[in-house]
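S.,

Sequence below, as promised.
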Amino acid sequence: MAFHAPEDIATVLNIKPSTLRKYSLLLEQSGYSFKKNAQGHRWYSDTDLMALRKFITLKDSGGMTLEDSADAVFLWSKTESIARQATLSTATQDDTERHEATVNELTIEERLLRLIQHQQQTIDQMAQSIQKQEEQNGQILEEVKMLKGSLQPLDAPSSDQSKIESVESSSQKPESEPKTVAPKKDTRGLWARIWNK
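The prediction came back faster than expected:
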């Protein structure tokens, strides 16, 4: 089996190496294991590459958290390994090994069932949120229609304003214009005007 460096896998998956480390850590927390060298660096097999692709697909599909996606990939990998073991097993397998395989399958089935139930709860919550949002949108739309109907254009006078203007115009009596009085010209001399004499 061939193993690949993290940089190569990150390039193939079109993600950053730091993102690959994050995804690998999440998968390990769910129970998935990667091959590590003496320094503790991860090396990825072709099966690991398939698991990471499945993880990214589940994550991008929406509705699943990163942890849920990691759990699903772990369960998928276990069912794949169990299926491979079942095809490779011989008819001489004793009762103890059969019992252990059955227990492993039950725990995987239980985890899958919990994952499906969690997804169903998420879907139900999202449906309720969408319904509430649609109700709020309907209420807002009704309020906007009511406000739009009650508003009048600014340049068109309202009936109340025209009544007020007609009352004001009838109550005002035209006044005669005041006569303009021309000021008298002062004929005194300069010194008389200065000394006001």
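The chain is about 70% helix and 5% strand.

Coffee later?
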